[in-house]
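=== How it folds ===
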Amino acid sequence: MGTFSTSDGVGLVYHGEADDPLICLPGGPMQASSYLGGLPLDDVIRLDLRGTGDSEKADQYRVDHQVGDVEALRQHLGLDKIRLFGHSAGGTLAILYATRFPQHVKKLLLVAPSPRVVGIDVTDDDRRAVAELRSAEPWYAEAIKGFEEIWAGNFTPEAFAKIAPFHYGRWNDAARALEDHPSNDEAAREYYAEGAFDPEQVRAGLEKLDVPTLFVAGGYDVGLPPNRAREYADLFPAAEFVLQPGAGHFPWVDDPEAFAAAVQRMP
């Protein structure tokens, strides 16, 4: 475990050590990075974002502000270029960093990244089409009720709890364990606050991003359905798109061997 300070004096913690680390940014948004502890990859450094895990709380949590935190970590590690990993909402932070500091990114690994940063809208029909692929699962009848409530506009914690199995290719003990990892709900509400980014400007930045990129999506992911994932990946001029069949929003949990093999093939 290591520590460093941000430009506004917040003490942040990272986990891991390597000469050429893969710096991992967690999703949630604002979930403790401990849920990435099972990544089947070498030389990983997990960053606890401000206000999460072992890092200090702060006054500012908006995602664009946290780009500076990633840059502070790069400088603390003494690296000219970094390999950067972003999962889900962490993908937003990774993309904003890469478009602001492309000269400091040598590889970009995006795993089921949130499409909000580029203005791609995932519709209820998109999610329904993926959800219905799971109709033979023993948990489906109860879980789909949660989606029906959400699609009807009832955004209750109970409804979101019901749909948890849809986020995984296999609803097993490993999947359930990820559901228990802590997050900072107050910070999460601020992460995507108004003014954090302009999707059109982000798209323009991606057009000029000459960084080798691996984009991994799950065939069962209701958060980023395959059709929207392909649309998203096409925005990157130097991206390899990998669709991991049978995986949900956490493909390294559903099939760690396939996930690790895809990453290892990355040039």
Q: What stands out?
A: The CA atoms of residues 130 and 220 lie 6 Å apart.
